[in-house]
Structures are given as C-alpha cells and as structure tokens.
Specification:
Blueprint: E1 5-8, H1 38-45, E2 50-54, E3 58-65, E4 68-75, H2 78-88, E5 91-98, E6 101-105, H3 107-117, E7 120-126
Antiparallel strand pairs: 1-7, 2-3, 3-4, 4-6, 5-6, 5-7
C-alpha cells in the first residue's frame, strides 16, 4: 500500500452559475505535465543527463543543473512506475511524479522543477525498522534505485 502523501496539491474548483465576477487575481499554476523520453524530459528540466540505467523497463539518469542535483527516471509502463514508487516509499524522500517518469531530489529542487515539468510533488514516508546503531539509515545506497544517493 502506498503511503505517499501529496505535498503539493492542485486544487480544482468547479464554478457553476454566477460568481465568476467575484474571483480575485489568478496565480499561474504549474505547467501541464511534461511527457517524452528521458532525454526530452531532461532538456525541459534544463539538464544534460548522465545515464546510469538503460533498460527496456527503466531508464535512469543523474542530473546536475542550476536547480541542483537530482535523479530522473522514466518507465516503460505505468505499472513499472507504480512498483518503483512502492519500493521507494521504504526510503523516504521527495518525488516529482508525472506520467511514466519520476524526479528524485531534495524538496527544494523537486519543487522548482515542478515549475518546468508539471507533475505532482509527493513525499514518501521513511519507515526503516529496527536499530542498527549509527542511525540515519537514509544515507546509504538504496537497493534497486541506483543514483538516489
């Protein structure tokens, strides 16, 4: 069960009848959610991708740009993306999620990239169990998700 909490929600208000005259100034929302290949999404985000995984079901690249450092992943199927997000939930973090793509990075980076890529900002809950000494279990490599460190 996914336990991702929506950190940035797009509120849709249906206006019926009159009342439109009472609306105040509108603030622009995020752009329409981007679509495309890993390279097209990277170009829209403003990065030159350093490809780490190039498989039929998953393509993943590290990006370093003016917005900071992040990982961009694209998926062949919606199911593959959902399974990846379910597994990533164990590690916590902030994700920008679009159709068949995910950006993983610091919350500020993800929030800024939403202005270019659209999508939904989600925060995964970290629920590492047990105590292995050292604490802060999120600093190590993340199994199955190369490039998340």
């Amino acid at each position: 069960m996914r336990k991702l909490l929506v950190a940035g929600a797009l509120v849709v208000v249906a206006v019926t009848g009159c009342g439109a005259a009472d609306e105040g100034p509108r603030t622009p929302g995020p752009p329409r959610t981007a679509r495309g290949s890993l390279e097209e999404l990277a170009r829209t985000a403003g990065c030159r991708p350093d490809l780490q995984t190039d498989a039929d079901e998953l393509r993943q690249a590290n990006c370093v740009a003016g917005d900071g450092r992040y990982v961009l992943a694209t998926f062949a199927t919606d199911r593959g993306q959902a399974e990846w997000l379910d597994a990533a939930d164990d590690y916590g973090g902030t994700y920008l999620v679009g159709r068949k793509w995910v950006v993983v990075g610091a919350e500020g980076v993800v929030t800024r990239l939403r202005g270019r890529l659209g999508g939904t900002v989600e925060r995964a809950s970290s629920h590492h169990s047990g105590s292995s000494g050292g604490g802060g279990g999120e600093a190590g490599p993340r199994s199955g998700h190369d490039g998340h460190h």
